[in-house]
Amino acid sequence: MLWKTNRALVGRQAISSSASFLRRAYSATAVDDVASAASTNSLVFRQALQASGPRTNWTREEIAAIYSAPLMDLAYAAGTVHRRFHNPGAIQMCTLMNIKTGGCSEDCSYCAQSSRYQTGLKATKLSPVDAVLAAAKVARDNGSTRFCMGAAWRDMRGRKSGLRNIKAMVEGVHALGLESCVTLGMLDDTQAKELKEAGLTAYNHNVDTSREHYPKVITTRSYDERLETISNVRDAGIKVCTGGILGLGESAEDHVGLLHTVSTMPAHPESFPVNTLVPIEGTPLFKTTRIKFDAVLRTIATARMIMPTAIIRLAAGRVDMTEEKQVLCFMAGANAVFTGEKMLTTACSGWEEDLAMFKRWGLFPMKAYVEPKLRDVSDTVETESKTKDAVMASVSFGQAATV
Ligand code: SF4
Question: Residue limits of the Radical SAM core domain (predicted)?
Fold first, then answer.
């Protein structure tokens, strides 16, 4: 239809001519303006905004100063840092499969899979390799680029055949063109090297919370044991995925403590998952007061400010967030979601739902193996305009844009 063609043309011209305006607007609102907006913390904001790469010597005081800034200033500054290191439209879609459910000997007081709590969960054995690879293929065909496999184990001691099967899963996931991640509990250096040789992309082992709050949540393994596993993973050359769970009855100081732990590791984690507690009946934390969204957003924005290259992952609990809350997280630096049928034992937003959300907000699935890097902001604007131009050219008004 001619009228549709004309409207599409006008839209394209408007976008094209706005590119130079956007470039000017960006340079006018660059470091100085964003930093002075956060006037109470302008020095530490300026340092974070001007960072040309990750730094690992943050003090707790510096992180607390960023964390406690006025939230809209903090979110804006975090979005600015995000755009300097990442394509702000790209969101990584990951699917997490439980490859061995329940029966775990640990006492993590939020977890349905601990054998110490009556949660009604039925324990299973390790899934067969072909069933896992069939699920990975479904995830890939629906748009996921990372496939994560979780087993409810304390550690890998004495699990030789289990490790052999998991290595076969990792190899199969890679053959499908997907990034692979596993979470299997504590790992020694030899096991980490074996997984690296199998081609494992990343290993997840969360520190969960601050060192101070940790003993109130878990008593069967120490904070330092967690850090040792993370160290074994990093030394083996596997990317580290480590983050936290918000809403375990902790305080704002504990969020700062969690962020301090991960941002002062010898290298920042490649991936920082942000979970919010999904209360499970039968676990000790079932009746804990739910965390407020502003604290979640504050934690994500602070993580982006102090770990500019990490992938920040909206993990468990996302299913309870409205779309608008999720988008606010993306604007403040989150750039990955778990998507699919289930997330371990809890519900998860599905692929179709997420892709529809992406379309509405001009987001798109991140490709596999994208490396963050310092970007020229004017290039970012140019790239975004080209992307929009391509979208406008490919659709008629009144129809949804495809990504
Ligand atoms: S180690 Fe993992 S599976 Fe076991 S109780 Fe803790 S969180 Fe649950």
Answer: 89-318
